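Researcher: Go.
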Amino acid sequence: MNRVASILGIKYPFVQGAMSWLTDAKFVAAVSNAGGMGILGPNAGAHTVTPSADETAERMREQVKQTQALTDKPFAVTLIVAAGDTSIFTKKILDVVIEEHVPAVLLNSLGGVSSDTYGVDPATMKTLKEHGIKTIVRSLQPSIEDAQAVEKQGADVYVATGFDEGGTMPGGEIGSFAIMPMIADAVKIPVLLAGAIADARTVNAAFALGAEGVYVGSRLIPTTENPAAENVKQLIVDSNAEDLTLFRTLPDYYRSLPTKLVDQLTKNDQTLPGKEAQQANAKLMGGTSGMRIGMLDGDLERGYVSVGTGISMVHSIQPVKEVIDEMMADYDENAK
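Model: Structure:
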């Protein structure tokens, strides 16, 4: 049996991306019910920012409870971690994960750029293992050294993220189908591929290159259950990779479909020195607030629409189950 499916207790080795603001209980349960691993992102179900760690944790608890009411299948919660101490926000959400018996977590690692930042916070990993919680680690800066450090820490699954992804992009400009064999050949734990996985062909290609599963974000945004704004879903359907703009921001790069804000971000990238452009754009983007405004609220004047190059393979808004069944059709056939 496929190791990812076996470890996570799911039908397909298909893991849904965390996508910050673009998840909620309904969407995550739909992914899990369709045979994948649904994941509640850092701002799951939220429409406003809160500076309170306690409120953030209670918002997540409510989403966990709602998800549990909608599916009896495994799902995960996102924890943002680094190689060193974790934030009070992460600690509070970790408490919720344990108290509500969530079976798995996605550890979104901020490190991976030096020997001091490879891997994740050891104390967090130790706590998760003590409670029998499965761990999927996705580093902001994937590398051979980081994957090996994560493996040594006892992670169950590693995500190799290529430069084709949407959202916060890695500084190492290695494409998805180049990074996959590089990481898979370096570790013994199963590896998922993220970035431009959007149809059965790309799933098959990922497996051919050593992946034991896929990590999918952008393809699941234009689905009936996803909380993204309808005009954003249609924009994705009507666009392809040629429409995407790449620009510098902190920590490295972002890409987006055209919006008024993105015009300014692109102009800064073209006219300002590297570090200056990164800092100016990060300020304009307001962390992930620009994603909330653009993709959740559908405001294409003040926000941005960050997606990966796999949007070229998206041709309609479909239910989550249809998308997953189509993408995993060959895997399902081979598994019989």
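Model: The chain has a mean pLDDT of 94.
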